[in-house]
Amino acid sequence: MRWAPWILVAFFLRPQLSLSALSQGSKDKAEWPSLAEEEQKWSVPGLHAGLLYREEHTDLEKSYSTHFYRVKILTNEGRRYGNIEIVYSRGVVEVKDIQARTIQPDGSAIPFRGQVFDKPIARVRKLRLLAKTFTLPDVQVGSILEYRYRLEWKGDSTPAMRWTLDHQLYTHRARFSLRPYSVTSSALNWRSKGLVGKQPVWQGEVQVLEIGDLPPFRKEELMPPEEEVRPSLEFYYQAPMMEYIVPVEGGPKEMLDDFWTRVAKFVNEKSDKFMDKDRALRETVAAVAPAGDPPDARLRKLYERAQKIRNLSYLPPKSNAEADKLVENKNVEEVLRRGYGNDSDIAALFVALARAAGFETSLVLVPERDRTFFAPEVHRIQGLNGELAMVKIGSEQRFFDPGSLYCPFGLISWEKTAVQGIRLVKGGGLWVHTPKPVGADTRIRRTLRLHTTDQGRLEGDLRVGFTGQEALRRRQEAQDQDDLGRRKDLENEIKRWLPDGSFAEVGKAGPWDQAEPPLEAEIHVRVSGMIASTARRMIIPLSVLRAGNGAVFRSTFRAQPVYIPYFYREDDEVVLEIPPGYQVESLPGPGKIETAFGRCETSHELADREIRFRRQEAVEGILQTGSYRELRGFFEAMRVSDENRTVLQVVAGH
Asked: Is residue 388 located within the same domain as residue 447?
C-alpha cells in the first residue's frame, strides 16, 4: 500500500499522465565535454586531488539523471581516486551506461575497458546500498580522470529533486540542471541549505545552477543526516488550490494546512479501502486474540500476528523468478492469505486487526529522521515515508511500529521517534508528535570475567546483551548475512571495545530472527598490554571495556554538529579473579560524572578473592547539539576515570 505515487499523480500531474510514461528515459550518448587548457594546468597546493568539473542533470518526466565527473590527480596519494565507486540503492535505481577514461599529462586518452563490479556497501534497515566499482587505467600524477553514468529510477520510485552540491574532493566548478514535469499546473519551488548568494535560473525549460570553489565534505561519526549538513538545493511542487477542504477540528498545534489536509484525506480514503475486509479480520481476531483476554494481551497477540507477515521491505524476493510471482496486495485480506507484504501493508493490517477487535486505532504517517528532517512548510510528500499505529488503551494513546522488522511490541524504531506526523482521521488528519526515545528501553549489558595468565595477559569470557534499539538495529542490519558473517561483524565490534591487539571469538549469538528476546552473545577474549608488573606488585585497570562513544569525541575539533539518534544505557561489570599469592593493596574510589545530557557512575568492590568493577553510563538528555566542548568534556572525564588502576601486592611469605 504505497500511497506517495498515488498522490504524485492525483495532486501534481494531469490525469492523462501515467507513471509508466515517466520511466522511459533517453539513451542518447554525448561526446566527452571539452577539456580547457586552464584545467590541464590547474593545481592547488596541499590537495591530493581535486574535482575540476562536475555536471548533473535530472529529467523528472523521463525518470532519469546523468552524472559526469572530471578529477585531477595532484600527488601520488591522490592516485587512489582512480578507484571509482558509484553508490546506489538496490531496488530503487539502476546504474547504466558507465563510461570512463584516463587523460595523461601529454593529452593522450586511455578508455576504460575493464570490468565493473557490484559491492555491498551498507544495510540500514530497509535500505540496501551497493556500489558499482571499477579502477581507471594507468593513473599518474597529473592525470585527469573522467567518468559518467546514468541513473534510471525503477517502478514507482521518482527521481531525486535535490542536488547535493559538495563532494569528498574540493570542487572547482559544477553545473546542476533539472527538467521538471511538463504536464503539471503546480508551481515549482526550491529551498537551499548552505548556499549563499546563488540561486537556480531558468534556461529555457530547465532550471540551472552553476557554482564553484566548494570545500570538500568532511564526514564524521554521530553527525546529523548528510542532507541536513551538506550544502544543497531541493525542489518541491506547491500544489494548486483545487477546492477548499474544511480541515479537521483540533487544537491550534494539531490542525493541518490545506495541502496536508488534502493529502491526509486522500490517503485515509485509500487506506480505509485497503483495510475494508471485515469478515477476514473478524475471523483472524477470533482465532488469535479472544475477547476474554485482557486488552494489552489481545493487542500484543494481534501485533505478533501482523509481524508474522513476510516483510518484503526488508526481506526481498530471493530471485527474479520469485519476484515475478509476487502480486501486489490490494487489501488486508490478500496480505493475510498470501503471507507477504511491504512495511506499509503490515502497518495497515495491524491497524485493521486492532479496529476489528474494538480498539480505537489510527494510522499515522511519519517522517524517518535518519535521512532528513521533516519540514511541514515544505509540501514534500516523500518526507512522510513511514507509518505507525496509534491505539487508545484506556485513557492512554500509544504508538506501535509493526512495519519495522523485529520491532518489539511497544517500541518504535528510533528514526520514527521524536518527529511530527499526521494522524489520519475521517475527513483529513491532525498533527501528532511521536514520543522521544527512552534510555531505559535501550541498553547494552556487558559482563566480563577475567583471570591473569602466566604470559601476563588477561583472559576470560564476555557475555553481552542488547535490548531495545540496540538489538533492533543489529537484527535488521544482519538480514543479508549468514551466521558466519554475523559472528564476524560482532567480533569486529567487540574488538573495538577492547584495547588494541586484543583477541575475541564469538561462541553463541542470537536469536537473530525474533523481536522480543534480548540479542545475546558469548565471547572468549584475550587482552594484552594491560598489566604492569614489578617484583612485588601488579597494577591493572579494570575498565577493559571502552565506554560508549568516547572514541568519537577524542578530537579537540569537530566540523559537524553531534547527533545522538537515540538515548541509551550501558551497564558494565568486569570481575577479576585475584591471582594466587596476591592480595589487594588499593582500589580506586567510586566515581560520578553528571551533566544535563548524561551521567556515569563507577565503583570497585572486593569480595571472595574477586574484584568487581561496575560502570553505568547513560545518555538520555540530548539528541543534537552544536556544543561539542561540553559533550567531549563528559566523555573525556569518563576516559580519565577509566584510567584508575587497581594495585595488587604479593602476599607476605610468597
From this structure: no
